[in-house]
Write a structure and sequence with these properties.
The complex is a heterodimer.
Chain A lengths: L6 H12 L18 H6 L1 E2 L2 E2 L16 H7 L21 H12 L9 H4 L2 H8 L12 H7 L4 E3 L7 H15 L11 H11 L6 H20 L19 H7 L21 H7 L5 H8 L9 H8 L7 H14 L13 H5 L5 H8 L4 H5 L10 H14 L42 H19 L11 E2 L4 E2 L11 E3 L2 E6 L8 E3 L3 E2 L2 H6 L2 E9 L7 E7 L16 E7 L32 E6 L1 H9 L4 E2 L1 E7 L13 E7 L1
Parallel strand pairs in A: 3-6
Antiparallel strand pairs in A: 1-2, 4-5, 7-16, 8-15, 9-14, 10-13, 10-16, 11-12, 11-15
Helix pairs in contact in A: 1-4, 3-4, 8-10, 10-20, 12-15, 19-20
Chain B lengths: L3 E5 L2 E5 L7 E3 L9 E2 L8 E2 L2 E2 L14 E11 L6 E2 L5 E5 L10 E14 L33 H5 L7 E5 L11 E5 L14 E2 L4 E10 L2 E7 L5 E3 L18 E3 L3 E15 L2 E2 L10 E5 L4 E6 L13 H12 L7 E2 L15 H7 L1 E2 L7 H14 L25 H4 L9 H16 L30 E4 L11 E3 L4 H11 L19 H11 L23 E3 L2 E2 L43 H7 L2 E5 L21 E5 L8 E2 L2 E2 L7 H10 L5 E4 L18 E4 L2
Parallel strand pairs in B: 2-21, 3-7
Antiparallel strand pairs in B: 1-7, 3-4, 5-6, 7-8, 7-15, 9-10, 10-11, 10-18, 12-14, 13-16, 14-15, 16-17, 18-19, 18-20, 18-21, 22-23, 24-25, 26-27, 28-29, 30-31, 32-33
Helix pairs in contact in B: 2-8, 4-7, 6-7, 9-10
The chains are: A alpha+beta, B alpha+beta.
Amino acid sequence: MSNETSRYRRFQEIMTVAAAGSSATYEGYGTFWNLPLPELRRLELYGIAMFLGKDEQHPVSGARSGIVRGLRGRYPFDDTLYPPLPWGGKRVAEEDIALIEQWVDAGCPESDDDPAKANDAAKLQALASGDAAHPEHDGNVNAFFAAKGSIKQRKNVNALTDDELTRLRGAFAWMKSFKKWDLDERNFYYWARIHASQCQHGWEEFLTWHRAYLYGFEMKLQDHDPSVTLPYWDWTDDSADDVIVSVQDMGPSVPNRDNGVIPEAFRCWIDASGLKNLEGKVSTFVLAALSSVQDQKFNSGSRLFAKAGITYGKEPASDKLIVAELERINPLFHWKRWPGGNASLIFQAYPTTNDVDTILKIENFFDFGSGSTDDQFFGALENIHNLIHNFTGGLNPNYTFNPATTEAQNDPANPDDGEVAFGDMQNGAFTAFDPIFWFHHSNVDRLWAQWQALHPSAHPDDPTAVLPPWNFTVEDTYSTRKLGYEYVAKTHLFLTDSDTAITRFRSEAVTVPAEVVAQRRRAEIRVHTMQYVTRAGFHVRAFLNSPDANAETDTRNNERYVGQVNVLTGLCIGGPGHCAVPQRPTNRFDKRPRHHKTPSNLRFDATATVRALAAKGETDFHVNLVVLNTDGTPADDALFIDGVTLNFLD
Amino acid sequence: MPATFRIHPGIGIARLGNSPTSFYIAPETTGAVPIDCDTDGNPIVVNGVEQRVTQYKDGNGAIRRQAARFRVFVYDGTAEGRELRIGETLQVQSKRKGREQAQTLTVQITGIAWKVYLANKKASWYEFLTTAGEHGYAPSHPLRNANYTTAADRQRLIIDPGPRTVQFYDQFQGASLRRAQFDAASSPAPATFPPPLQPNSIATLGELIATQQDETNRLLVLGGFGNSGSMKSGFGNPQITSFVNNDGWFDDVSDGPVTAKLQYTVLQISGVDAPRDANGNLPTGAIDVDDPAWVIVGYPRYAPEIVDIVTGDDLLFDLSVRNFAYEPYLYGDPPFDGTVPAPKPDELPAWRSRARWNPEYYPYWKRDILPILMRPYFYQYVMDFDPTVGGYPHEIGPHGNFALKNLAIPPYEGEDPTERAQRHDARTFLYWVLRKDGQENVAQAPPYPGKENTLLYLMPRLAGDNPLQHANDGAPPAKFYRLTDTMLFILKQWAEGKFINEDREDIEAPPLPGGVGAALDRGVLGAVLGGSFCPGGEISWIARNPAIYAAPYRIRHAHSSTYQQGALSQPGVVAGAVPANIAGGLQPGDISKYDGVPWQADFNECSTQDIDVTYRDWNVSYPASTGDPIEPVVQLIYWWPAHRPMMVNTGPWSPTAQNYAGDLQMVTAWATLGFITRNPMFLPGFTGTVDATQPVFINTEN
């Protein structure tokens, strides 16, 4: 809209001019003001948040930001710890610093006429009246939930966006970076060892103990990146896959080991960075062989070697470097993982949705989730889980039994060395060293959560038993919501302006492939953080794919009509501001009960509507909301919300 | 605002020498060569630069003394401060007694009267028995010269020449007060000096010289001539029977307070012109400096440029950081966001309970880290790391453990991951082998991941405060030495990659707090031994007791009204004597009394030490009680070779044997030993062919 240079560009110009002639490297970021904006916003230099910081829920203010303090020469850039910014350059005028401070306060927007920031009244009105479609939010959904005080989503690993997958891998890499420090609880291997020494299987604490285990691990991931959760590996997604992929990997001869398929997120590949890192460290032959399979994804590392034509074991030092590189490129990949096995025994390990439905119908907790302490046995879920463990770990094709030694497994203190007979996922002691373990168990946990929803009063025998090594009891784990998460396969988020009342809402269409509709059990429309309003009651109707839906649109015999939520409100009994959106507690000693005007959420079950439309061949879906007064007229002062989501749940 | 005045350095260091007239001035930065001066104490200045010493001995081969130089700084508005100029106009707060409110006087400074009181209390003090006494002496702790029992007799064991005052120029007495001797003849009251001694008697503890340089007046303090002797006569005397406690012996080491009175003419009183007297003269007055100083006399620094692993500056910096909020962003009251005000002096006890290390403190490579890392490298010129195979464990070249090029680079965005891992490993390894708190009795480092088969010694592999005893012998053993907590923290941050390389960021590290004056405080102590203390070099373990300090780098003075010449304090167990009282501040001689007597005995023997490491739990052992025929496992460990060199250019530095006979020989031999100085080949201006294989430091003037 404006032809003036944006504050973002001005900031870059100010820095470029002030830093002219400086050779400061700024921790390797160099002219950091030219970084991509999302990276710039999160940038830390020498431990100082320079702009908004990494905590999206609590962005740093302009005045407190490192860049503004640094340019002003305020602590710690007042020569107490560091000289003022820019280092090696010229000081910046206060007028320019004030502009940068405002820009940081505004959230470091790229453009000053960003619709979400610039209060473009006409555009907001078009959105609130349904004349314009709300775009899908391309940012991180969990960051939105965290900011709104909602629980976060554990998603289907196959449905992660690139950004979510990158953040997930970053968090795993971060935890793995503490490998050398055995006792550091940020260390991935520290957590893996807990399974080796404490895991509970074959009795009623199987599900509860692992829920607590995953919770603690997920909290660690979130210490690094609060938007990361543990996605789940829905085994049924892969049940349609068969040996074909393996044949492609391995050529015509498929042995009865190392032949199975796993989701793409866990596979391995060599990329340009890996080839560059290996340059000069492995032979030119090996390097050329690796480049022949560049960016191809493999279900196991040994299949990558085979396809590239590298004989594993011929040059152990070279092999070790390659394996390390593969595990670096994808921190979710694990070398000691050879999925597959004999076809009749294990190869059809993946359950179908029907199989899962069958076990979800079990009524007894113990039959479902393993027997009580007095009557121990593997329940149905644990049984399937065991099969996936064995399938995923598989047998090592490079292992030759040596009669001279009876050691089939390597040194427990050092799980990195030596050739092993079978994959770590087959081995209770080492299973959690394979990152896929966490996603596998997230799925076990999800199925239990689903089963709990169907059987809310069925619990283990001993709810007050403690789950070592944590201070959780069994019953503390019953609610995933209390632990801060729920399972949602895929979410499409549409942000709304919370200060503008919505009369009609329309989202942009999102493409949902037919197989997703078929596989997902439920579809849901959610309206987030609806503010309390002081007026008469009102009604919100939801439709799918009805761009013209309005107060008059027929709801009977309308297959696009999803449902109606009825809202009870009322007049304010207090003074001005009494019914405004209450502040969330900022003080950890605030033990007062939930404020009774806390914004609420609305939910519409859209499963039947989605299925009906999908059956007609529709693959693009968009959400429509209509807000009505009780007399059926449009309500234009009733619905104030932060966003709408369309969710697909397994 | 009214000015306040401090003497810098807070602790000055003079050094003994046997040259009757020649001396030089103490270095004022760590590792620097001392400053050369003429026999009146005027520095040799060329093109505005004070010249460095080139000869440590005079024309007759006698060792030149080192003068401690003191200056008065004025603080009037900024924390930085500047040196006081004679003739400058300032505002001061009048402190006349009896007035309810202080007046602000506008004054012109006319001169500085310096007052120093040196004493040596060694012969009157307790015996040195390792660390016993650091937290108070047991009632049974023996006194030195215990056969003298009355307070009066024991008072005469103190070398007490009384205070002296000097002034460069006085309006009444002119230039006559520029020098003063700490001898008996010029004492204001009856002085106590020892009787004639063998081999060398003591006639003076030193001298004061007031100097003028540009517009400033400064003080030089000279110590003794290195004379030590025993008052015992007869067959077999003089005789040394202990490395620290020798009854009948005296030396001329000393220490004591340095104060200054600033003289002025009053121009205005509370903004109104001051009244003139009948002769038309303005009123005059004098004011004491707010923060006085201390002088300590040490023995010669034979390797002036080779820095100890832990210096007196490191010790005081650590103590000040952890007790006096000296650098509150390094160690202080969280959160470290600049919002926590600095504690006032009476808030320090509570502050100490809250303060902690700032985990986000990024030390600077050149300012904080490199100086520590370079020290072990230069030790190769004063000791032999590995006499059998000649290893160089501290090599700084590209393939050494201390490959500086690698160690200097902090992690950075875009760094090659392999290089990052290598650099991380190189730093982590060096930090790994450093001895940490609680490992004072452990010789070997735990296995390093990836080098499990390499035998690693904890560093520094130097003797600790008490390697002489087992726990059942008395004081707790501390067989080996470690860096200060602050040094370890800085190196830990560095090891973790949290540090800044100034060159890579195009910046100069900000100076440490306190400005030029504080830099003098620290720099002067850079040449002082910071440990281990058994009993030590210039200072002993008393130096790490926060109670003796009034402020960072500043010893708490006993108020001058609480003691007088001839009645200095003595051990509390001596009936009728004035008891020593740390809480009341220190008196003359209260630092050096904790050292050995004569200093030459301890100096000679603090070279290497056989340390018994037979058992991991060697702290308690009574093998004789069961007739256990153990073969003790003993390691030969150095003390602090930068202070007491051992091997120089592959030969022994001192001809003295490591026994009492050698100690006695050292009583005179110290004046014949060489100084280890930079090989001229590696000095700027050398025009010949440089042979890089030659040692950087060589023994000269021997």
